[in-house]
Amino acid sequence: MPELPEVETIARILRQGTPDQPAILGHLIQSAELFWDRTLAEPALSEFKARLPNQAITAIRRRGKFLLLHLTRDWLLFHLRMSGDLLVKSAGSPPEKHDRLILGLDGSIQLVFNDTRKFGRVWLVDDPQHVLGTLGPEPLDESLTAESLFQRLHATSRQLKPLLLDQTFLAGLGNIYVDEALNLAKLHPLNHANRLTPEQASQLLNAIRLVLRDGIARNGASIDWVYRGGEFQNYFRVYQRTGEPCPACGTPIERITVGQRGTHFCPYCQPLP
Fold it and tell me: What is the pLDDT of residues 80-96, one digit of tens each?
């Protein structure tokens, strides 16, 4: 599933463009064609097609794992879920098998939402908080301090791994970056949040930011979905490295299931208290 670094990379590509595809910032939406009804979360398709045309894309942002296109009057939100991707193609390019939504833009280009597993969703709303209101703080936001994270951790007795995956606690983290951050912070995924010391909370916040910034710098990770171009998978410390040596101590990486999610850690560097 695309996590914060992957969504941030897609937002950057859509803003700035690449040698392979133009930027869409500033372009005018002219038409919308939906190929899978459930892709559109809201509004109704008739209203969606009526409201979108002649709105310009004025800004492209990320919030948690959501991609936000600020339009002239509305906000267009995408959640890529397991396999969603956004591509810019030439106008008139024939729809491919897994294309779910195509937005025709001026300049003879189109924005294509491709989603193999059909879990991705799109919203057209006048206020993004209608969809994003329950999200927790952004882990890269400097207003999130080690002290405030410590207070949030001590408000619950939940285990660290499922807590950090909870988007209402912190926005944007997923399985990859939680495993990587917990390893870097030397914290066991089953450790209880309210047992962390202030020093451990600070180490955790620093580790989260380090792995996220590294992921963004490497254009995210390209594994088990259609996302393209990332290199962070070549620098994993523990994720999907079961049985391989820990880069810090050489102990074989172990895999357990926590909250129905595969979880990777070093039993020596991350002992369970």
Answer: 998 899 999 999 999 99
